[in-house]
Specification:
By secondary structure, the protein is α/β, with parallel strands linked by helices. The chain has 9 helices and 7 strands. The protein has one domain: P-loop containing nucleotide triphosphate hydrolases (Rossmann fold), CATH 3.40.50. Strands 2-3-1-4-7 form a 5-stranded parallel beta sheet, sandwiched between helices. A hairpin with a 2-residue loop joins strand 5 and strand 6. Helix 1 packs across helix 9, helix 2 packs across helix 3 and helix 6 crosses helix 7. The longest helix is centred in the C-terminal third of the chain and has 15 residues. It binds adenosine monophosphate. The site of adenosine monophosphate (AMP) has 19 residues, from helix 2 and helix 3.
Length: 201
């Protein structure tokens, strides 16, 4: 089962992806986490990606696709995965389609978390992450960078909603409210074979 979770920064994608993937028994794969891990490990890819990511810009498609392809080739992805934060451009969506089609596969569904922009700016302003035991603000959660990330989302990523709707794959889900409420809405929006207890595959 191959799923994409779409939504602006601060829509709760990471949290929801982890919960849903666990329920479905597939890995949640976050390109943001892959990028941060490469930066932390000071790899060549990490050094290239950091220039963009610290400014709230997207990492170029070539680099992002290469990092993701490496992850998708790992054994735990054979039975499917839930992508969090990828694709983020039409070019990436096309690359993903081609990558799957080459193996005779396709996406099973795309779930979009829909949330007001005021709400995501508020959530990101309040977000803290744990680094080496201390709670800190992520570099790209600083106010100026958040505004840039939202602008990038509107311009480059939001068009994916119509793209996947036209492909008949999209389900939109209201992302306001408690985490558990949103998870329940997502669960109800899963394609039938992906629903927990469904036939799977
Ligand atoms: P995230 O944790 O998903 O908000 O991602 C953090 C940062 O990593 C983004 O602001 C981008 O700089 C980079 N990034 C993550 N996923 C992608 C992607 N699919 N394409 C380009 N850049 C990405």
């Amino acid at each position: 089962m191959r799923l994409v979770l779409l939504g602006p920064p601060g829509s709760g994608k990471g949290t929801q992806a982890a919960v849903l993937a666990e329920e479905l028994g597939i890995p949640a794969i976050s390109t943001g986490e892959i990028v941060r891990a490469q930066i932390a490990a000071a790899t060549e890819a990490g050094r290239q990606a950091e220039v963009y990511s610290s400014a709230g810009e997207l990492v170029p498609d070539e680099l992002t696709v290469a990092m993701l392809a490496t992850r998708l080739a790992e054994a735990d992805c054979r039975g499917g995965y839930l992508l969090d934060g990828f694709p983020r451009t039409l070019g990436q969506a096309e690359r993903l389609h081609d990558h799957l089609a080459a193996a005779g596969l396709s996406l099973d569904g795309v779930l979009e978390l829909v949330v007001d922009e005021d709400e995501v700016v508020r959530r990101l302003g309040a977000r803290r992450v744990q680094v080496d035991g201390a709670w800190v603000t992520r570099d790209d959660d600083r106010p100026d960078t958040v505004l840039r990330r939202m602008q990038v989302y509107r311009e480059l990523t939001a068009p994916l909603s119509d793209f996947y709707a036209a492909a008949g794959l999209l389900r939109r889900v209201d992302a306001h409210g408690e985490v558990a409420e949103v998870t329940a809405r997502l669960r109800a929006a899963l394609p039938p074979a992906a629903a927990p207890g469904g036939s799977g595959g």
